[in-house]
Amino acid sequence: MKCERNCPGTIEDGYCDTCGLAPRAGAKPVPVPAPRESSSALSTRTAQSARTTGSARTGSSRRRFGGGLVEIAPITQADPATAVMTHAEVPESKRYCAGCGNAVGRTRGDREGRTSGFCPSCGEPFNFTPKLGKGDLIGGQYEVVGALAHGGLGWIYLATDKNVSDRWVVLKGLLNSGDEDALAAAVAERRFLAEVEHPNIVKIYNFVEHDGAGYIVMEYVGGESLKGILKDRRAANGEVTDPLPVDRALAYLIEIMPAFGYLHDRGLIYCDFKPDNVIQTGDQMKLIDLGGVVHVDDHDAALYGTVGFQAPELATLGPSVASDLYTIGRTLAVLTTDFRGYQSTFADSLPDRGEFDVYRRFESFYRLLQRATRTAPSERFVDAAEMAEQMLGVLRQVLAAGGTPHPAPSRLFTAELRTDPRSEIPRWQDLPTPLIDLTDPAAAFLASVTVTEPADVLLLLRSAPADTIEVRLRALRARIDLGLRFGSFDEARQARDRLIATDGSDWRVAWYDGLLALAEQRPGDARPRFEAVYSALPGELAPQLALGFTLELAGDPGAAAYYDVVSRTDPSYTSAAAGLARCRLKAGDRNGAVEAYNRVPGTSSAYRSSQVGAVRALVKAPDVASLTAAAVLIERLEVEAAQLAALRAELLEQALRTVTGGATLPATVLGPGRNGQVRERDIRFALEEAYREMARAVHGHEKIRLVDLANASRPRTRT
Fold this sequence. Notes:
- By secondary structure, the chain is an alpha+beta fold.
- The protein contains 24 helices and 19 strands.
- Strand 11 and strand 12 (213-219) form a beta hairpin.
- It starts with 10 loop residues before the first strand and ends in a 6-residue tail after the last helix.
- 45% of the residues are buried.
């Protein structure tokens, strides 16, 4: 059965093998996420990229993660028996009292640290040795092979299930059987974890007791954790930290986001996510170690987290969807940088952007981390769906920096409204527009408002079924357009102020406030508004395009960087390519301007205009190579004869100045098939012909002017 969610996957065991979601029950409009409201369910947004990237599964031995954008080699599972610890003992550095948290079992002088005893501070007993040994039969069904690892909630053992064909299973017991909180957590797992079933989450089979202790029985997941992958990279790099490339780290975590959406839909909070707790097994990513999972409304459960990863409000406000998303952001930061001090100096913050090259190179990635790890939970991403969508958008930008665009339609913005690469200044009216939130009560009504005259729009909006935020936003845009026409923005400012008072946290309010500032020619005031939108939506290109417009209008050369990211990621944003070309021309980089114009795809309606821009950029350069390249481009252009003649005239005017200055030019500047060097006489005849061709298309004074130019260009002859 196919997934039917704009996803190339198939349904296996009740879930899609690509996006990880259950089959769609019925066709429903996909809601547009808003920062103020939770959409609860993890949508299919991460899978929709398959429309442009192809299937996430390939016929090769590799799997494509991150919406099918990043190729990841599968990890071959070794014999599970080889994973058993040869010396099962908790390292001294990790021995702490369950009662007071002080260090216990440490070496003192010549005396080795004890693995069992009593805490000298509070008298709490401790025991850091495994309770089970090889051959022990647990619950009359599970035969222990040995210890695999130890964690915050207990020892983890490898065993075989004697009742189910000796399949490999994992037993997870308590680290300290006297820890009442740990015991309560284990009992809680027994209550609801057996109902958790998702392809990206380890399966819970059973819960058994042995000698007064409880053990969770779960599937054995072979492979490598992200922490292990980092350790392997460090070892291969001469014990020097070698973080994961940003695209690979994003791809790994995008794969696991549906698992968080699944848990959150059921009111479950993972709490203790970190690189240790996600494993690549074969060609799949899985969440493991569900010991810290709690119900969001369970205010009495013991909470488990890890310093450096857990949200700062966990101990006071308790677990939430926002606290889980915080741990994902922190995990991304640890995976991609040599993040020293993440458990001390930067336990609740990020280093400045200038501290790491990946932050400097990928501003969107840094903003993604910033939003995910904001101190205030309400300022983080709304849910796993929204965060996954923005992660995927950032991944596209990161990959585009390597030279390969992976565009995809935005779910939040329209395309740019009008494009002309020859425009000499950016037009804010051409920027994309936020799409209507389909969950808004007035969405259907607004879709029926097709008039474009702003006064007519305002008249129709009076009959809206409800005064929703979407209605007020549409009215604000209409008032901005009216203000541009009549030179007064008083009504637009009043409408803006009312929106800020009622919906000031919505990024769309900031967007339209930025447009109002641009309409009033206040780019300095527009910038912080678009910065706010960019910070809220780091995976979207529209805010970066708006920042490019704003900075260019303010004369800030930083506009080029935003134009560059947008046009590399999605070449269909032709206004970004044009803006980049303008910035580069202003900086004297004509070759760079031509490269920017050449980003416009041949299928775009703006392609011809972009090529005209490239010709004019080349013609303005007096060097031979540029003039020759311009001549070649002119021959390829499919434009009207008069426009083609005008471009030839510009080329020949520059060629004439070049040869009269003493330089020589190849005859190819006059057209293909010519050999040798061009003479001034030849250029003048060609220029005369171009002016006369232009004159045939016009009348009146312009025709007379062009004929005079043709006569003046013609070389002197004896006849």
